[in-house]
Amino acid sequence: MNPPQATSSRVTETAPDTPSPSDQAALWRQRFESELEQRLRETGDTPGDLLESMRYSALAGGKRMRPLLVYGAGQALGIDVDELHGIAAAIELIHAYSLIHDDLPAMDDDDIRRGRPTNHRVYGQSTAILAGDALQALAFEVLANDANLSQNPAAQVRVIGAVAHACGAAGMAGGQVLDLAAIDKTIDATALETMHRLKTGALIRVSATAPALYALAPADQASALSDYGACVGLAFQIHDDVLDVTASSQQTGKPSQGDAARNKPAFPSVLGLERSRERASELVEKATRSLSELPGDTRALAWLAGYAIRREG
């Protein structure tokens, strides 16, 4: 049995009992938490504090932006979002692993994440590194064993390949290399955007495109979601940089002014605060325009694009 093909006619009317985009996101987030918990429970017994360390970071809450984008893209393609829990969980597991490693002394050396001590401050660096490794491995195990993906091996291989590409040397890991290399240096806006399209943007982009790969969507729809994800990913990072300057540590769950303290280039220091906000808004507008190519209900994706630069933490 093949995965559903993306539908061909755009949804233009909303049923009276359809939740608002913000309510829909809350419902998806609630369902996702139980799905993620189940994936971690299925790992079974692990040595020492490894599973506890994995759970500490993966189940720490957060915005769950990436799973919400998976569900929103599925809805925009006319896919039953219940078929996408495996993809959503895998991408969030990779995000969780990346945060553990990002906080390590050899990287950003952060002590606080989401309002509590970072993983290595609780479990030690060795366990934290291994927990990150295990979360990444679990992500691909989830994709390999997902019942919906397994119905079409070709689609499954494409999704796995896209996720691997997004978190590897040509994506998130490569972006982190650029980020570390930029410390104590002056770079221009183009170089900064290139860095963050990889470090942050690649995983957000694949969150939007993976449902199209799963559904074997037409090229124009896949391209629209790719454009959308690229714009939202960069806007999300720009807003993160703005919050680092303007928000309190209570709002963000981590120390404020962190980029300046580490002498890392950030959008407010490169573009200025107001131009950074303008650039983020331009990207959201571009992302929203790309949704016209999609056949299903795009209200959630439009809301998520705006949320990327409205959030306070």
TrEMBL record:
<comment type="similarity">
    <text>Belongs to the FPP/GGPP synthase family.</text>
</comment>
<keyword id="KW-0479">Metal-binding</keyword>
<dbReference type="GO" id="GO:0046872">
    <property type="term" value="F:metal ion binding"/>
</dbReference>
<dbReference type="GO" id="GO:0005737">
    <property type="term" value="C:cytoplasm"/>
</dbReference>
<protein>
    <submittedName>
        <fullName>Polyprenyl synthetase family protein</fullName>
    </submittedName>
</protein>
<feature type="region of interest" description="Disordered">
    <location>
        <begin position="1"/>
        <end position="24"/>
    </location>
</feature>
<dbReference type="InterPro" id="IPR033749">
    <property type="entry name" value="Polyprenyl_synt_CS"/>
</dbReference>
<dbReference type="GO" id="GO:0008654">
    <property type="term" value="P:phospholipid biosynthetic process"/>
</dbReference>
<keyword id="KW-0808">Transferase</keyword>
<dbReference type="GO" id="GO:0016114">
    <property type="term" value="P:terpenoid biosynthetic process"/>
</dbReference>
<dbReference type="Pfam" id="PF00348">
    <property type="entry name" value="polyprenyl_synt"/>
</dbReference>
<dbReference type="InterPro" id="IPR008949">
    <property type="entry name" value="Isoprenoid_synthase_dom_sf"/>
</dbReference>
<keyword id="KW-0460">Magnesium</keyword>
<keyword id="KW-0414">Isoprene biosynthesis</keyword>
<dbReference type="InterPro" id="IPR000092">
    <property type="entry name" value="Polyprenyl_synt"/>
</dbReference>
<dbReference type="GO" id="GO:0004659">
    <property type="term" value="F:prenyltransferase activity"/>
</dbReference>
<feature type="compositionally biased region" description="Polar residues">
    <location>
        <begin position="1"/>
        <end position="23"/>
    </location>
</feature>
<dbReference type="InterPro" id="IPR053378">
    <property type="entry name" value="Prenyl_diphosphate_synthase"/>
</dbReference>
